[in-house]
């Protein structure tokens, strides 16, 4: 991919922010129903539990489509693939806004998830191709900035908008944003050829590349720990009397995550391994801190802020490490990342639900450090392949710098 990268030292901000906007739309489209379940259930004439499947099928679409669609479109021009994913959001969000039938809406949500699976597989590799190799980490950080913005601002605003003008209009607004994004991509985002048959690597070959499984192992264990706490943050903070302030707690997390991704953008190309190890260690420590001081409002806000800092750069760090490690198989490896990441989201919801049901939210700070210690051990062992020491250069680390 380096042959297509720009040789200059300037970051193509307009193009990278278009990718960030794509990620923003992915996240808001995925999570919007969570804040609008009562309205959607009433509008479609179904129960809250059935309405909740709008989130489930979206994640399922991403899981099942990411790898096969990435492999199928490897030879296609990159901007064509990007525009197809965005057109998918336009079509399926519009159907969601207009549909009065539950099963049609559910199908639209599934295929919106399919679009997201392909988009997430594409964004990281696309961002890396826009810049010289030594700036790839910074470029990816810019391209990923849409995620914390969506989590901290997009979802609450979408929920508020849905409550104000109706859930259908909230999805219609998403379609409107998508139209703007299509024009943005056509104007600002450069096009690149797909991979030739000689460059393409088989799925098994990519998976067996030294270091790929280590990075994916860290992705799963780190994100599993994160999603146990994030999914059930409401019952966890209730002990500190913050049941009515969950939105503020999540805003606190989102602001910190935004700061974390900005910090990551400055350091990832020089200190990727160190940042991964520090992030995991700090998240483990703050999990214990939250358990010890779970009754304190100040401690909760402080701990959640530090947790947000450690999480903000996670996607950039892990996708950079995975793409570096996989080389020509980067796009396929990044599609595996989509599957593992979404699997960790689902696993966090399932495992967290079992823990909550059996022992209550107070057990989370005991479980999270165990998962994070496992993640830390995997990262520490991947010193040669996966998370090498030194400064990144040309997709690999330069030891000793």
Distance between the termini: 24 Å
Main beta-sheet strand count, sense and barrel state: 2 strands, antiparallel
- The quaternary organization reads as single chain
The average pLDDT score comes to 87
- Total count of strands: 2
Put simply, the count of helices is 16
Strand order of the largest sheet: 1-2
| Rg over alpha carbons | 20 Å
Q: Level of helix content?
A: over 70%
Strand-residue proportion: under 5%
Runs in which pLDDT lies below 50 for 5 or more consecutive residues are: 1-5, 394-401
Domains counted in the coordinates: how many? 2
What best-fitting shape do the alpha-carbon axes yield? globular
Which CATH architecture of the largest domain is right? Up-down Bundle
């Amino acid at each position: 991919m380096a042959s297509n990268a720009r040789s200059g030292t300037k970051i193509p901000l307009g193009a990278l922010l278009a990718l960030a906007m794509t990620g923003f739309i992915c996240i808001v489209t995925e999570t919007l129903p969570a804040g609008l379940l009562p309205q959607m259930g009433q509008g479609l004439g179904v129960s809250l539990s059935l309405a909740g499947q709008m989130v489930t099928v979206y994640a399922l679409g991403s899981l099942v489509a990411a790898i096969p669609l990435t492999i199928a479109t490897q030879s296609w021009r990159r901007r064509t693939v990007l525009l197809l994913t965005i057109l998918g959001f336009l079509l399926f969000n519009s159907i969601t806004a207009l549909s009065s039938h539950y099963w049609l809406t559910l199908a639209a949500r599934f295929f919106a998830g399919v679009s997201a699976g392909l988009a997430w597989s594409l964004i990281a590799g696309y961002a890396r191709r826009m810049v010289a190799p030594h700036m790839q980490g910074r470029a990816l950080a810019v391209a990923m900035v849409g995620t914390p913005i969506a989590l901290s601002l997009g979802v609450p605003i979408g929920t508020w908008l849905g409550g104000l003008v109706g859930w259908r209009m909230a999805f219609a607004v998403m379609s409107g944003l998508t139209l703007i994004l299509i024009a943005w991509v056509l104007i600002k985002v450069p096009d690149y050829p797909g991979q030739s048959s000689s460059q393409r690597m088989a799925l098994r070959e990519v998976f067996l590349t030294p270091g790929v499984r280590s990075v994916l192992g860290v992705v799963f264990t780190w994100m599993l720990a994160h999603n146990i706490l994030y999914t059930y943050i409401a019952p966890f903070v209730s002990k500190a009397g913050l049941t009515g302030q969950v939105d503020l707690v999540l805003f606190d997390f989102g602001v910190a995550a935004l700061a974390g991704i900005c910090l990551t953008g400055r350091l990832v190309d020089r200190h990727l391994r160190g940042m991964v190890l520090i992030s995991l260690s700090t998240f483990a420590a703050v999990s214990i801190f939250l358990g010890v001081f779970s009754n304190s409002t100040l401690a909760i806000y402080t701990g959640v802020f530090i947790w947000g800092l450690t999480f903000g750069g996670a996607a950039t760090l892990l996708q950079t490490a995975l793409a570096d490690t996989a080389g020509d198989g980067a796009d396929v490896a990044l599609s595996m990342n989509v599957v593992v990441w979404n699997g960790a989201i689902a696993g966090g919801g399932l495992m967290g639900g079992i823990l909550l049901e059996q022992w209550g939210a107070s057990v989370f700070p005991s479980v999270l450090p165990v998962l994070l210690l496992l993640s830390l051990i995997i990262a520490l062992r991947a010193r040669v392949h996966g998370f090498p020491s030194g400064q990144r250069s040309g997709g690999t680390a330069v030891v000793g710098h």
